[in-house]
Amino acid sequence: GRKSLRQKVVDELKHYYDGFHLLWIDTKVAARMVWRLLHGQVLTRRERRRLLRTCADLFRLVPFLVFVIVPFMEFLLPVFLKLFPEMLPSTFETESKKEEKQKKKLNAKLELAKFLRETIVEMAKRNKADTG
């Protein structure tokens, strides 16, 4: 079924609320990680990636807030997201966007694996020709 305009607006407001809430939680966790780093502890690879993602999200939040604060600027947000797809902080991404990004990464990895396999086959053929 189709959603009414009011329901669409409520859904968007919930989406932004959830995004800001998740960003707040990530920021608190990142602050604890920075505190641990300043006191000489070493972060795991997973913690380091999360800290880097959170810092990147905070830097992406600055241009995003312009769209939220300036009246009627949010109507231009889809245009800017089309031009700059990585502008939105990761906590504001929808599930479909996350799945699309994962599919692109998987396709790139498959292409790389295919290239490497073909390279190895060519090297094996060349080595057989050299030794035979």
From TrEMBL:
Protein known as: LETM1 protein
Membrane topology label: Single-pass membrane protein
UniProt KW keywords: Membrane, Mitochondrion, Mitochondrion inner membrane, Transmembrane, Transmembrane helix
Residue spans crossing the bilayer: 58-81
Chief location of this protein within or outside the cell: mitochondrion
A Pfam match: LETM1_RBD
Organism, as annotated: Gymnorhina tibicen
Single annotated GO MF: ribosome binding
Lineage, top ranks: Eukaryota, Metazoa, Chordata, Craniata, Vertebrata
Keyword Transcription regulation among UniProt keywords: no
Domain Letm1 RBD intervals: 43-128
